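MOLECULE: protein
FOLLOWS: sequence and fold
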Amino acid sequence: MVFGQPPMEQADHFLMSMRVPAMVDEPEAKEITMAIENVNVSVADDCLDRFPAVVRAAEKAGLKVEQALEIVGIVSGSIESAKLEDLARVPGVAAVERSRGFQLPPPDSEIQ
């Protein structure tokens, strides 16, 4: 688990760009863009006694843990969009919910 990292971007999801090695028949590395989703994962009530093991399994499924709240059975973090279904199938995971973001207007704006 990873604790103490700065919070992810405020967007519901963001794009991550990375360079991957070229295939044998490709002359150069190419850039791939992946959509990253911020999520909250609920651990099933009957699995709360195995919370650390469920979190480790979620990490193996691709979840980058930002915060693990064992007392309430919630894990928040980020994951590639393509791996959301894998995360939902982890034993002990009751639900995977995409985080929703919002931003209030500045105090001096006309609409409040």
The chain is about 15% helix and 35% strand. Residues 51-60 form the longest helix (10 residues). Residues 1-14 have pLDDT under 50 and may be disordered. The radius of gyration is 17 Å.
